[in-house]
Design brief:
The chain contains 3 helices and 13 strands. With 196 residues, the protein is mainly β.
Length: 196
């Protein structure tokens, strides 16, 4: 899934992700605002379909949300009013999106990724802070395979680090170099969508 970023919108900018070439072309053409490719991406692939939600332009949130958690998906769908209200924000279910692997919980609330996968971290822009009133911008999340990208959002824009959200395919092949040192090379999962 490729990352797009619109820096003209609310606190810390707005991120969007898609593995669909048609959607990517539409975003590249500027049809939906000033989204630009960041050069960041994560690999789609696994056995769990993510669910995708969208708010609305007005009253919002003018943003998308993705989750591999069936509990998250069901909770948001349960809150969805029909017909869509014109004066209250809500997430509207759009269907299933890309496939991924859901993180495992160690029983103490600490998430980790299964073997042959690696973490995709998530940050939240604190539109709804842990306490106090809602902030004046729409909810948005950033997904990243590099913790440093999440740390930057937290340090520079006050976003919230939500930890591991997804697990992307990550196969490792061990081989020996002529010097005898261990060497790791990354191989694409045969059921995954390759990314840069």
């Amino acid at each position: 899934s490729y990352e797009f970023f619109d820096g003209t919108r609310h606190w810390g900018g707005h991120f969007f992700y898609t593995a669909d070439p048609a959607q990517q072309n539409t975003l590249d053409a500027g049809t939906y605002g000033q989204f630009l490719r960041t050069g960041r991406s994560f690999m789609a692939g696994g056995h769990v379909p993510t669910c995708r939600f969208y708010g609305s332009v007005h009253p919002g949130p003018n943003s998308h949300f993705f989750s591999a958690s069936e509990a998250d998906c069901n909770a948001l769908k349960a809150l969805q009013a029909t017909p869509t209200p014109i004066d209250a924000q809500q997430w509207n279910y759009e269907g299933r999106s890309f496939y991924t692997t859901e993180p495992l919980d160690d029983g103490n609330g600490v998430r980790h990724c299964p073997e042959n996968t690696r973490p995709v971290y998530r940050a939240y822009n604190n539109a709804y802070p842990p306490s106090g009133p809602k902030n004046p911008w729409d909810s948005n999340h950033r997904f990243a395979v590099h913790q440093a990208d999440i740390d930057e959002m937290v340090a520079q824009h006050g976003w919230r680090d939500e930890g591991i959200a997804l697990c992307e395919p990550h196969y490792l092949e061990w081989s020996r170099s002529t010097a005898g040192a261990a060497k790791i090379s990354r191989l694409a999962h045969p059921r995954s969508t390759p990314v840069n």
